[in-house]
Design a protein that fits this description.
Oligomer: single chain
Radius of gyration: 20 Å
Structural class: mainly alpha
Largest sheet: none
Length: 305
């Protein structure tokens, strides 16, 4: 069996850019829908259509029992609840914030993840990465502008969403020791759908035909985005693909301009530069340190032969 790693960086970058465009398009559809429907209903129907799209593929691969099989049901539910909370905060904020502004603030998730990996995973973060984290959060302050007339309380919802997203990703690292990516994606959609429909007796608004189409499109975008991103990381190393996740800001800006005539202000651009630079540097340092650790282990194994 051929176990040679696939290394097609150009293709990996292409899939990553497509995935970010799809995520931005999904967020844009969500922003459109939350103007008329509760966030619970948006999450419920998005999750439902994602499950409808994923289930035949998953059942064909693993069978219905295989889809639901897990060694850590409580961990799966906790991770899913964190993910649902992150989506709820982000889509709720989109009622009030331009798409590009919310996307830029959402980049703080990588900063939260780096900082929280110390107490929650026992990882070591050196002074360089701590400096990058501080630079990144200064970018957040520039965008949010607390205490000024430009401040919007909805920005805090996005920050909360980013924090919950970081916790979800830390839970993903923890669960990946025993759980497959397929099961984590499925349980996330299942829990989101269940929570959304639990609120429907109180918040249901009957969608028109075009609204049903938008909910379906949102589910399609979400599913294709996750598949494209997984393919990107399969074709190229994290260090190559990772920085292109920040292309989300470009797509969000273009969509926001053409759909809602939204133009990010200077503060958003200045803060985004700091946020993106800090995120890419943290990714670079983590990748380099992981590579160094693998080299040390390999050399130690060879010296023991």
């Amino acid at each position: 069996m051929n176990t040679t790693p696939i290394n097609r960086p150009a293709a990996g970058i292409g899939y990553a850019v497509i995935a970010m465009a799809l995520f931005s398009a999904m967020d844009a559809v969500g922003k459109w829908l939350v103007a008329d429907f509760s966030t619970f209903q948006v999450l419920a129907l998005r999750g439902l259509f994602s499950i409808i799209l994923m289930l035949p593929f998953l059942v064909r691969r693993t069978g219905i029992v295989g889809v639901l099989r897990t060694k850590n049901l409580k961990g799966q539910i906790l991770r899913s609840l964190l993910g649902v909370g992150a989506m709820f905060g982000f889509f709720s904020a989109l009622r009030f914030l331009p798409l590009a502004d919310a996307t830029a603030i959402g980049f703080s998730g990588s900063l939260f993840m780096a900082a929280l990996s110390v107490p929650l995973l026992g990882e070591r973060v050196g002074p360089r990465r701590w400096a990058a984290i501080l630079v990144g959060f200064s970018g957040v302050l520039i965008i949010v502008q607390p205490g000024s007339s430009a401040f919007q309380a909805a920005s805090l919802l996005v920050l909360l969403s980013a924090l919950l997203y970081a916790l979800m990703m830390i839970a993903t690292r923890w669960l990946s020791r025993t759980e497959s990516n397929v099961s984590m994606v499925f349980y996330h959609s299942l829990v989101a759908t269940a929570i959304g429909f639990a609120a429907m007796p109180f918040l249901w608004v009957a969608p028109a035909l075009e609204d049903w189409l938008l909910f379906a499109v949102m589910g399609v975008f979400a599913t294709l985005a996750h598949l494209s991103l997984a393919q990107a990381f399969r074709l190229a190393p994290v260090a190559v693909v990772g920085p292109f996740e920040y292309s989300t800001l470009l797509w969000a800006t273009l969509i926001g301009f053409f759909v809602w005539q939204e133009v990010p202000g200077p503060a958003v651009w200045y803060g985004s530069v700091l946020l993106v630079a800090a995120g890419i540097y943290i990714l670079y340092r983590e990748t380099k340190l992981a590579s160094d650790a693998r080299r040390v282990i390999r050399e130690a194994a060879q010296s023991g032969d």
